[in-house]
Specification:
Elements (H helix, E strand, L loop, with lengths): L1 H20 L2 H4 L4 H10 L5 H8 L3 H10 L6 H19 L3 H33 L4 H54 L4 E2 L5 E2 L1
Antiparallel strand pairs: 1-2
């Protein structure tokens, strides 16, 4: 039971932390590409603006990586964006493997508790026989309780693991689209309107 309870505390902490960290407005705030385009158009895009952008959000960090190579060709700019993007994605996926591991091992820990409980039942039978139901009931209840507790931790852990995986995947897609939009705008392939949307 103690390992299962420890897993439940760790899983709860990860779920709360990921809910806090994976908010869309923190990861991928809107309007950044439009803001960069206006800075570039008005010749206001300097090292201070790029540094501010880098500390703004994970998306800002990716876009800033591209802007540091703004005077190079498209391929170099995209490579720097992709390299930084890999680091950002790794940070977005932080603790998710731990949550997935908890979802996998807690049913096994519950099964282990069941086996231990049944061993105690059979040990009690060999010691006092089947005439004392309270001794047998204690081992059986322990076996069932650990299984139920293990499943109670594993099911929500797996649900949140899948949910956060989906959220990270969507955020990665959004950041890729914004990065490609930045490259297209900076290299003059597209223009932006006042709302910050690109025009074909």
């Amino acid at each position: 039971m103690w390992p299962i309870l420890l897993c439940s505390i760790v899983a709860l902490a990860i779920i709360v932390e990921r809910f806090w960290s994976l908010q869309r407005n923190k990861i991928c705030p809107g309007g950044l590409v439009g803001k960069i385009w206006h800075w570039s158009k008005n010749n206001e895009l300097d090292a201070a603006q790029i540094a501010s952008l880098r500390g703004n959000s994970p998306l800002g960090r990716i876009l800033a990586a591209g802007l540091t190579n703004i005077h190079h060709d498209r391929e170099i700019m995209k490579e720097s964006i992709e390299e930084t993007g890999r680091h950002v994605v790794s940070e977005l996926e932080r603790y998710l493997n731990t949550l997935g591991t908890i979802a996998s091992i807690t049913p096994l820990l519950g099964l282990l508790g069941t086996v231990i409980g049944m061993i105690k039942v059979f040990a009690a039978i060999t010691t006092v026989g089947v005439g004392n139901p309270s001794v047998l009931a204690g081992g059986i209840s322990e076996a069932l309780l650990t299984t139920a507790t293990g499943l109670s931790v594993a099911i929500p852990s797996l649900m949140f693991y899948r949910y956060f995986r989906g959220r990270v995947d969507q955020l990665v897609i959004d950041m890729e689209q914004e990065s490609l939009k930045l490259v297209a705008v900076i290299h003059g392939d597209r223009e932006m309107d006042r709302s910050g949307k690109t025009s074909i």
